[in-house]
Amino acid sequence: MSRLIGAVLAAVALVLASLSPTAAHQSSDAYLSLRVQGETIFGQWDLALRDLDYAIGLDADNDGIVSAGEWRTHQAAIADYALSRLKIQADGAACEIRATDHLVDQHSDGAYEVLRFAAACPAMPRVLEIGYDLLFDLDPQHRGLLRVEEQGATHTAIFAPEQKIWRLEGHATDWRRQIGDYLREGVWHIWTGYDHMLFLTALLLPAVLVRRAGRWEAVASFGAAWRDVLQIVTAFTLAHSVTLSLAVLGYLALPSRLVESAIALSVVAAALNNLFPLVEKRLWALAFGFGLVHGLGFANVLAELGLPRDALALALVSFNLGVEAGQLAVVAGLLPLAYLWRRSRAYPRLVLGAGSSCIVAIASLWLIERSLDLRLF
User: Is residue 319 in some structural domain?
Assistant: First the structure.
């Protein structure tokens, strides 16, 4: 049994080592904005060029860069591909969609095609239905962030493989679905935000150990380890909730490059503390301090969505609860294994030592890339 547990935890360390430095915050997202004006719906769809290249092949010379010429050459193909995967219906009748313009914009994670279009509906919709099926066949992790403006109100939703249809009836949306959308997005963002996950992992690796006289020893009980972990996870959530709320409300704004670089630095610092311990107790304080920085990174997700004021509190609370649930799910899977193998002499060397060293290496590359705006891999 101990060998099996050791193999599992060793595999976790190897997974940490195999993560691509460019994986953090490279999730596949698209931003769909609609404005209802009578019988016409005007739309803007921001689509990552890297996603479009993967789907239809924009990089003709395979040099790893989509040039302006390659983008212009494929504009018709982009419109055909995207609009064939978008359905808009007014009272059950299909609206005819046509592309009106193509632009390019820079988001925090790269260049995006800005596809503008207009949808002509038979009548002003009393029941509006949006069907979204972009990239789900190629990337089940893709998310479509929807923002709809109609009659002075703003509605938001998140499309996913299991949630491809959105309906607006009587100028009201189901608040239960909004809660579910943001809960899922919070869980999904923590699971696919590798820099956030590595930061928490660096804090959790020593949770089943205590340091005495300069040496790591096994913690006495599972309850003690669980209490420490719960304090770390909760402190991280409380901290990022503060800065996330301030950023979304417009009270706090920092350059994206600075925020992402600081997040990478926090991962390096947390992992180095395992190798050369400076903070041996109250790791929850370290989680809280750096969690304030991570909250600004989380804010980018909700800021891109353009949250409506009447759903702001609902979105923030649901998103944060989703992040907390995602963290606890990871802890519930890994902590028991670590606890069972904590007395092995290999744990401090292989899981804690090698795992932390891998995290330092990966996060250091992220820090170089982000601070100097480079692409090393």
Answer: yes
